[in-house]
Amino acid sequence: MTIGTCYFPEHWPRERWETDVKEMADAGIEYVRMAEFSWAELEPERGEFDFAWLDDAVELIGEHGMQAVLCTPTATPPKWLVDEHPDIRQEAQDGTVKDWGSRRHYCFNSPTYREETARIVTAMAEHFADDPHVAGWQTDNEYGCHGTAHCFCEDCSAAFRDWLRERYGDAETLNERWGTSFWSQRYDSLDQLEVPQPTPYNHHPSHLLDYNRFSSDSVIEYNRLQADLLRDVNDEWFVTHNFMSEYGGVDVNEMREDLDFAGWDSYPTGHVQEADRDLRDAEFRVGNPDQLGLNHDLYRAPDAPHWIMEQQPGDVNWPPHSPQPGEGAMRLWAHWAVAHGADEVLYFRWRRCREGQEQYHAGLRKHDGSADRGYRDADAAADDLDDLDLDPVEADVAILHDFENMWALGPDRHSPDFSYWAHLKTYYRALRARGATVSIVSQSADLDRFDAVVGNTLYLADESLAAHLDDYVTGGGDLLLTMRAGVKDRANQLHEELTPGPLANLVGARVDQHESVPEQIETRATYDGETYDYRTWAEWLDADAAAVVGRHETGTAAGEAAITRNEVDDGSVTYVGLWPEADLADRLVTDLLGRADVPTTDRLPEGVRLAERDGLTWVGNFTEGAVGVDAPADAEFVVGDETVPSFDVSVVAAPAHELTVE
Ligand code: GAL
Q1: What is the pTM of this model?
Q2: Which of these three, 564, 595, 626, is where a domain ends?
């Protein structure tokens, strides 16, 4: 388990590089990522390549016993290229062209840009083909960042028509699958289709869903072009990509198939400010352990590690506020990543840059080259992690997460308070607060390896999903299905049968009514004899095979069934027709874990979490005060001890459920 950094040698005088690289090695850094925005340096004029500077940097890195991770520089096509081919630029929905002068200004479907991509990727790959110091590659940089997974240019409309032809064959089939008799939206020919244009009111939901699928496929295809070219040149290289926090533009589950492993970029004090709730003071200093854990558990594939391609090094430029991270936070984040399955954590960036858009972004070193707070933390993390050689995380529980459900629910939120991620996090947080180890996987994943499964808003459902879940439950699995399951078919039309459509037999109940409820209206339900608050969404259930285990207590829904449980052979299906607040979520998940014989901890305090990997448990303290850990007498503390100071971590050789934290 090692650490690394992201370095931009092109920003610094050549005479400085040696010092930089030596200081990296001194801190225990093993991987150095470079070149993701350097096209203009690598090819100052068409066909005139200059690799000498990057050769020198790679050589220096190798001489100091480290490995280089190179990036393809396609996130920033240079000025000469954009001037030659202005048609490669992205277009916003209102027709605004996203011009050169920042980054990510290219369209994934531009045939010209795909040719140019192949040219630069091949040139770079061939140049470094036999370089022993290059370990692998990152393709591009953060596909879809700044809202760029979606483009509305003519190339995209043409590619969208091809995509639809492949999927539907003819207009008649599309009309039938989408349901276009509504508001005279029928097409006479697939040639009439376009990416969604500016319209007076909202778009047809099936059109939008397919446009999202198409956009994601476009990025996946573009990435595959790069990955294949790199592997053709040297199949020993790993190929990865740096995804983003809770990102939704690209189907990561699918794109991961083309990568050796996934990476993501972790900026804890920035991401946490995107939350739809009030933050604790400490969260501004260190982020939230569940918010970070969720992304680790999402980007990690079952049985495979993931990497952090960019780890926040100190204060950053882009969130609304940027308080200095708490003392030790940068070390804690590296530990937290490893605890959740990462094998490598690269800090972004090596040194605060004196030029360009990110001068208010810290590095491990200050802009005069001296050590910053992050350097000391990274050094300490490298010392702690150096001796660890860990197997992948094994999770007890899976949360099913599918991008299509998120896309379909986007225009169907039906309440300003509904948020796909916030709802998923209710269950994630509750599971983690009981010490459970969680994986976030696609609904088609192999479920047998998990003791319990939470099916999160399985909005689009078909018979094959029903059969897959049925196999899991009849095989003894315990399943919790959340609200808004089985509402629509894959084309985004309501099922002919009442919700949850094809999942109704499994659930043993149907949804009679649904409602979205504003915050000012009281929403309480009983569950197992106690009363709990819920929020935003309520379904009234008609149970047949299932037992009613929770009822609405307030409003027009009072007395109606809200939560049901269907015992099926050795397994069970709990259906939750509301969005539980934390206490009810806790009860629901403890019951689920109890049924599945997953041992739990006492409910952990806010900001304190446990993460288990390969026989070790990390106690992460994301709060401003110290916490105490009570571990079995013979459990060794590999890092730290029974007192975990603020923004610090202890690592104990014992399973999570044997620890008590106060
Ligand atoms: C990431 C991006 C980096 C840098 C960083 C700043 O999203 O990949 O290039 O901009 O944010 O925090």
Answers
A1: 0.97
A2: 595
